[in-house]
Write a structure and sequence with these properties.
It is built from 11 helices and 7 strands. The radius of gyration is 24 Å and the shape is globular. By secondary structure, the protein is α/β, with parallel strands linked by helices. It has 2 domains: 78 residues, no CATH class; 162 residues, Rossmann fold (3-Layer(aba) Sandwich), CATH 3.40.50.150. A 7-stranded mixed beta sheet has the order 3-2-1-4-5-7-6. The longest helix is centred in the N-terminal third of the chain and has 21 residues. Helices cover 44% and strands 18% of the residues.
């Protein structure tokens, strides 16, 4: 009887080992391995053609499931990746490379930008954190001389491809907000559209004061890098400029923009250097 029980137990152990070998992808991976595999996945990911868009979450989870990972574990891995990507700039760059390979973001230019520049004479414009270039391409199409920067090489690739398709020219540079040289008296317009440049941050008014030409305008719209908006703080922060427009928009009101506006309050700010 004891021998029989031993045979049953041994058989159970062997079956478990065989199952683990047959289905290794089903294991709950640690964060470092999740990130390492995500980096490899992004590097091998094929960019979608201009004009096509599939959420990076959908592409990632579907690829995991196709590789044998259970759907629940694939979704968990995505959520862990989406959390730990905030740990460093390099990880954020990798994430955005994957997102822009997947056609991330709205395709139409920012409505606030269109409303603001109505009647303005085209000049030199800077699109900071330009993403795939929707605002830069719009500005170039109506006569502006546009430079844009982004930390994601895939964003710049997508922007140049879309600009070529639209028959316009852009100057693009790979940079972050804190490494790009904004210059002095360089710009008639600076666009900050959902680019994680926080207008509440006190480091930016001196930079913009120096970079804008007299009469130059800066347009901000975003969710404040996750920080709750404060109109009094914004007014105080930009008191060296003429504030043309300032709004604190409830979550869910703006439905045609980046998804954070659906779940967080959105700041709109337009300033002019006197």
């Amino acid at each position: 009887m004891l021998a029989g029980m031993m045979r049953v137990m041994l058989g159970t152990v062997l079956f478990a080992l065989m199952a683990a070998a047959a289905f290794p992808q089903s294991a709950a991976l640690p964060d470092e391995q999740i990130w390492s595999e995500f980096e490899q996945w992004v590097a091998a990911l094929k960019p979608l053609p201009p004009g096509q868009s599939v959420p990076i979450q959908k592409r990632y989870v579907e690829s995991q499931v196709a590789a044998g990972v259970p759907a629940e574990e694939a979704a968990r891995r995505y959520e862990r990746m989406n959390t730990i990507r905030w740990d460093s700039t390099d990880r954020m760059r990798t994430y955005w490379d994957g997102a822009f390979k997947s056609g991330a973001g709205p395709s139409n230019p920012l409505r606030l930008l269109q409303e603001t520049i109505t009647g303005m004479k085209p000049g030199k414009a800077l699109d900071s954190g330009m993403g795939s270039g929707r605002n830069a391409i719009y500005l170039a199409s109506i006569g502006w001389d546009v430079t844009g920067y982004d930390m994601s090489k895939e964003a710049l690739r997508a922007a140049q491809e879309s600009a070529a398709a639209a028959g316009v020219k852009l100057t693009t540079k790979e940079a972050k907000h804190d490494t790009f040289d904004f210059g002095e008296d360089q710009w008639d317009l600076i666009v900050c559209s959902y680019n994680a440049l926080n207008p509440h941050d006190k480091q930016w008014p001196p930079v913009f004061l120096r970079a804008l030409r007299r009469g130059g305008i800066a347009v901000f719209q975003g969710t404040g890098a996750g920080q709750p908006p404060s109109l009094p703080r914004l007014l105080d922060n930009w008191k060296g400029f003429h504030v043309l427009r300032i709004e604190d928009v409830d979550a869910g009101v703006i439905t045609d923009e980046w998804r954070p506006s659906l779940r967080r309050r959105t700041v709109r700010l337009v300033i002019r250097k006197e």
